[in-house]
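quick one, 404 residues, struct below
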Amino acid sequence: MSMEKIPPEIRDIIIENVYPDITALRACSLTCRAWLPSARRTLFRSISIDPKDTGLAFRRLLSVAPHIAPCVRALEIRVRTVTQRWWDVSDASLQAVSWPTLHGVQRFRDAEAGTPASLLQAVFPPGALPLRSVATLTLSALPVTGAVIALFARHAPDVRVLTIDGCKGLSFMDFIELVSAFPRLHTLRLVAAQWLHLKCAAGDPAFPFPRLRRLEVSRKVDFAPFVTWMVDHAAAEGLTSLACSISSLKHAIALGSLLHALGDCLRHLQIGFADTQHPTDILVNAQFDLSLCTGLCSLRILCAEPQLSSYQPSLSWVVILLSKLHAPLLKEITIVIRSSNLWALNLEGLDVVLSHVRFANLKRVTFDIELDVPSKRHAAEDRKLICRRMSESHAKGILDFGSH
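---
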């Protein structure tokens, strides 16, 4: 059988399984004319470029082969080479302001190559056609300035999923402006973002804030100003999925306000504590609980942080949160925990709480255990321990386990 006679669905499965072997994909594209479109779509589906090193090559590729542009579904802009200052400042009084978390980091010289904004403008010139097929955009180590925001608003107008990793702006309002540049955005991931704590003029962004459905914030981000702004401007009404970590009283208060605004609209929640030894005190002082999250379908609890010691053995916040939760639609609870921290979790108390009629529709309680010494023997011991101490849940058959 010649290659052209292979059924299209079989051909597509072959090409999908070859990915991400670029050499093999190139070979597939040269197999025959019938294989070229599928191989091309897979080969250029995800692109990562550095504006300085590979940006112009990407620009030349699109200029000589514009039919490739619709193939690009995921685009990552990552500044891998340090060339200059991280931000563009027109106000001379702000040029001497240093980043509070970057003490000792090399200062960039103005004499070096152009700014990331100017490099990006060379990659995406004003006359270039927008990349309307790009649905997933990742921005890494970029300054968040007006020029950068305007560029992406013009050249990637249909982004649905935005990831911000290691980006910096003068204020968190720069990030509000950036997110608002994508009207069709439904998922926002804040992996690492920094801004100066400067007083900025209040006001609405130039573009309407998108109706987010999913928000993920890592422990590296001070999400309190961002979340507070969303609540104050009624920008969180469509949110159905939320993932975040609490590291201070300020975060707990801001998150409590967000949960109050969402009410029974929230369906999926991931929550944990990071960089704090006193989570129970934070819950009490902030009067934080999950009593308003009546629409939850799944809950993921992160207690794998290496925050415990023999002097502060407390994962009581897990039981406290669940004791105030009344979500009739809740089907699944996942607890991510280190094997060495299992002793600090009140498993008997957890079993009592989960046996309440409020959790009658609960189908699965999964313990995702991070093994300090990975072995099947240690995993089996942890499972026996949990099953023994959570006898009612074990008898119902709702306990499940994962380990890594």
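The CA atoms of residues 294 and 327 lie 4 Å apart.
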